[in-house]
TrEMBL record:
<dbReference type="InterPro" id="IPR013221">
    <property type="entry name" value="Mur_ligase_cen"/>
</dbReference>
<dbReference type="Pfam" id="PF08245">
    <property type="entry name" value="Mur_ligase_M"/>
</dbReference>
<protein>
    <submittedName>
        <fullName>UDP-N-acetylmuramoyl-tripeptide--D-alanyl-D-alanine ligase</fullName>
    </submittedName>
</protein>
<feature type="domain" description="Mur ligase central">
    <location>
        <begin position="38"/>
        <end position="220"/>
    </location>
</feature>
<dbReference type="GO" id="GO:0005524">
    <property type="term" value="F:ATP binding"/>
</dbReference>
<keyword id="KW-0436">Ligase</keyword>
<keyword id="KW-0067">ATP-binding</keyword>
<dbReference type="GO" id="GO:0016881">
    <property type="term" value="F:acid-amino acid ligase activity"/>
</dbReference>
<dbReference type="InterPro" id="IPR051046">
    <property type="entry name" value="MurCDEF_CellWall_CoF430Synth"/>
</dbReference>
<dbReference type="InterPro" id="IPR036565">
    <property type="entry name" value="Mur-like_cat_sf"/>
</dbReference>
<keyword id="KW-0547">Nucleotide-binding</keyword>
Length: 220
């Protein structure tokens, strides 16, 4: 079928494939842009926003509104980047095994973050182990010289360290995490307070986000 579009248009056999290839082509022309990609069963959007807020202080940053994390939303976000962009912060979701691998084929992450493996969409995946298999595709795409950021408190996420060629940096509340929170409390409004401990030193942190669940997202 045909319909008038009221202006110039490009006709392609597969819109999804064309959109992805267009985004990949643009990103290939932006070698100065560092790509951050976040996945997990919960907390992707808020963590993506936290990362974007931080790195925007170091240079022009593009990140998606809301949860633009699929084969349409991700390339649309990439296509907002230009020659001035220094940081591209992306969210990657999955409805099945291979979905994140497809997204990393469009935007290969220099930094890949996996927050957790929960039971969201377990009916589609069949098990948490299959969810972990899908989420881990993000760190498989991290190249040598890149960084995989993994939740040390989630065994299924921590096990992904063997699936990446990049440097592994862990976060969490436990003593084995490279970046961790200690002395954690909630204030009278339920906002997290903790001491951030890193190899470079420690510092007090007071979040504006409500709930203890925001602490590991902030660590990532």
């Amino acid at each position: 079928s045909q319909r008038a579009v009221g202006g110039p248009c490009v006709v392609v056999p597969d819109v999804r494939e064309a959109l992805g290839r267009l985004a990949r082509g643009l990103l290939d022309r932006l070698p100065e842009a560092t790509v951050f990609a976040v996945t997990g069963s919960a907390g992707k959007t808020s963590t993506k926003d936290l990362i974007a807020h931080l790195v925007s202080r170091a240079g022009p940053t593009v990140h998606p509104p809301g949860s633009f994390n699929n084969e349409i939303g991700l390339p649309l976000t990439v296509l907002r980047a230009d020659a001035a962009t220094r940081h591209l912060v992306l969210e990657m979701g999955a409805r099945g095994i291979g979905h994140i691998a497809y997204l990393t084929g469009i935007a290969r992450p220099d930094v890949g973050v996996v927050l957790n493996v929960g039971t969201a969409h377990v009916g589609e995946f069949g098990s948490r182990e299959n969810i972990a298999r899908a989420k881990g595709e993000i760190v498989e795409a991290v190249p040598p010289g890149g960084t995989a950021v993994l939740n040390a408190d989630d065994p299924l996420v921590a096990a992904m360290a063997s699936r990446t060629r990049g440097e592994v940096v862990t976060f969490g509340r436990g003593p084995d995490a490279v970046v961790r929170a200690v002395d954690e409390t909630l204030d009278e409004q339920g906002r997290g307070r903790f001491t951030l401990v890193t190899p470079e030193g420690s510092a007090p942190v007071a979040l504006r986000l409500h709930g203890a669940h925001a602490v590991p997202n902030a660590l990532a």
